[in-house]
Structures are given as structure tokens and as C-alpha cells.
Amino acid sequence: MTNGSRTVPTTVVVPTYNERDNLPVLAGRLLDLGVEGLRLLVVDDDSPDGTGEVADKLAAEHPDRVAVVHREVKDGLGRAYVTGMGRALADGAEVVVQMDADLSHPVEAVPRLLAPLAEGAADFVIGSRYVPGGSLDTSWPWHRRALSRWANVYVNGVLGLGVRDATAGFKAWSAKALRTVDLDSVRSNGYSFQVEMNHRALSRGLRVVEVPITFTERVEGTSKLTLGVQLESALVPWRLRFKR
Ligand SMILES: Nc1nc2c(ncn2[C@@H]2O[C@H](COP(=O)(O)OP(=O)(O)O[C@H]3O[C@H](CO)[C@@H](O)[C@H](O)[C@@H]3O)[C@@H](O)[C@H]2O)c(=O)[nH]1
Q1: What's the family (predicted)?
Q2: What is the pLDDT of residues 82-129, one digit of tens each?
Q3: Which fold has domain 2-241?
Q4: Cα angle at 155 between 153 and 157, to 5 degrees?
Q5: Can you say whether the dihedral through the CA atoms of 25, 27, 31, 33 is positive or negative?
Q6: Which DSSP helix (H) or strand (E) runs through 232?
Q7: Ligand 1 atom 30: residue of nearest CA
Q8: Do the beta carbons of residue 40 and residue 14 sit within 8 Å?
Q9: I want to staple 121 with a disulfide (CB 3.0 to 4.6 A). Which of 26, 116, 140, 177 is the partner?
Q10: Ligand 1 centre and the CA of 77: distance in Å?
């Protein structure tokens, strides 16, 4: 990303667990975007399918553009993001993008997520399925569609965030915004991580813009959505509301 004539160091953080077939496709498309200063940071949790080795190979092929953090056990999406975002900031990133490895988030939309940050119009940007122009792949299972819609109504009802896609996992953050949310004290680990990040950011006065994206159902691999993640998601908005 550039700001005037200056290249802005931009890191895309991608958590992976069993994404062997998806990761090389995602990496290739990200590196081919033509976004100046863009790097990829993979956070892998010792995936049994060998995703970590695939990531190491990508890093060896693109030493200036791809890096890998290996964690020893599967420890959840939220903590993977906290680790990856912290590392990106420590390495000098001024903008951090978060996205899934499974190609459900459209790679070509990354520049549209970066634009409001470059223009100074937002502190963080949500790739949103629920603003005009955004959409959900019709092949997403009906129960996931219903759960996603319901989660947004629920979260906004409890917390009044005022964002249309409160659980979205495709976002771009300025470094200042990530420092303001105080990553190290984030507690949520499933997709309520997204809710907690929004809540922290908005309650600290940060500005958000939602840009429309089309969310596509993954082709390879499986979702890691568990009952535990869903229960956490039901409880987290209340914990945040009463600040416990
Ligand atoms: N390192 C690591 N990565 C993980 C873990 N669990 C999941 N991931 C990675 O996190 C990404 C998202 O995981 P999925 O399991 O595919 O997510 P999902 O259920 O489809 O949920 C997506 O949509 C939700 C909104 O509907 C989002 O809230 C969520 O963040 C994600 O984008 C993938 O790249 C996956 O490999 C983990 O424990 N550790």
C-alpha cells in the first residue's frame, strides 16, 4: 500500500489449521495483487496435514515477503491472531490485514479494504457481507447462514456495536488501532474474537468503515466451528457488556 509516494509496510496475517491445499493458492494470489509493501504472515498450529511445511516452503521461496509463526498446539483462531498481529507490529507493519486461509475471503478485495486507511477515513475496515453490495455465497449451508445472521442481530442487540457484519473475519487495521485495542488482553478465541475486537475498537473511539465483499464457501478442507466456539460466542457479548 502507498500513502503519497511512501510505501506503507502491510502484513496480511493468516491463521492456519489444516489448510495445506488452500494456502499456496491464497499466497500466490496475495503476492500477485501488486500491493506495494505487502507481506504474508502465516500462523500455523502444527497442522496434522502438513500446512506448516507448506508455509515454510513458501517462506523459503519468498524470503522477503512470506514468514511463518509455528505454534506447538491448536490454540484457537483468536490467540493465533493475537500472536500474528503482535508479531506483525513488532516487525514494523503499519497496516495489518486479517483473513482466513480457505479462500472464503476474496483476495482481490484487499486493496478496497486498504483504501479507507490510506485515505485516513477509518482506523479499521471490515469486509462486510451485510452492507449493500455485499453477499454470502448461496452454497453456504443454510444453518451457517442462519447462524451468521442471528449472531449479528444478537451481538448488536447486546452490545449496540452499530456495524452490519460484527462477526466478519476479513478486516484491515492501522497499527495505531491495534495498539489502541490492547491485543494482549483480548480473551475471546473463537469467532467472538472478531466481536471483542470490534467492541474494544469502537468503545475506544476508533473509526470503522465497512466495505462490501462476497463471502465464498470454502472448497478444500473443513470449518473449525465447534459447539464450544458457538457457546463462547453466546456468552462473550454479555461479558463485554458487563466488562468482566
Ligand atoms: N492457527 C490456527 N488457525 C485456526 C484455528 N482454527 C481455525 N483456524 C484458521 O482460521 C481460519 C478460519 O477458520 P474456519 O474454521 O474456516 O472459520 P469459519 O468457521 O468459516 O469462520 C469464519 O467466518 C466467521 C464469520 O462467519 C468469522 O467470525 C471467522 O473469523 C472466520 O472468518 C482458517 O484459515 C483456519 O485454518 C486454530 O485453532 N489455530
Answers
A1: Belongs to the glycosyltransferase 2 family.
A2: 999 999 999 999 999 999 999 999 999 999 999 999 999 999 999 999
A3: Spore Coat Polysaccharide Biosynthesis Protein SpsA; Chain A (3.90.550)
A4: 65
A5: positive
A6: helix 227-241
A7: 169
A8: yes
A9: 116
A10: 6
What is the Rg, in whole angstroms, of the alpha carbon atoms belonging to the chain? 17
The grid coordinates listed for 132 are 449493500
- Contact in structure between 14 and 44 (CB atoms under 8 Å): no
> CA-CA distance, 65 to 67, in Å (whole number)?
7
Task: Name the amino acid, one letter, at 97.
Answer: V
Q: For 172-229, write each residue's pLDDT tens digit.
A: 999 999 999 999 999 888 889 999 999 999 999 999 999 999 998 777 777 767 777 7
SS3 state at 2:
strand
Dist. CA 205–CA 203, nearest whole Å: 5
Q: Where are the alpha helices (DSSP H) in the chain?
A: 22-31, 51-61, 77-90, 110-118, 142-159, 175-181, 192-203, 227-241
Q: How far is the CA of 222 from the centre of ligand 1 (A)?
A: 10
Which mutation among 77, 85, 167 tests ligand 1's pocket best, with the greatest number of atoms within 8 A of CB? 77
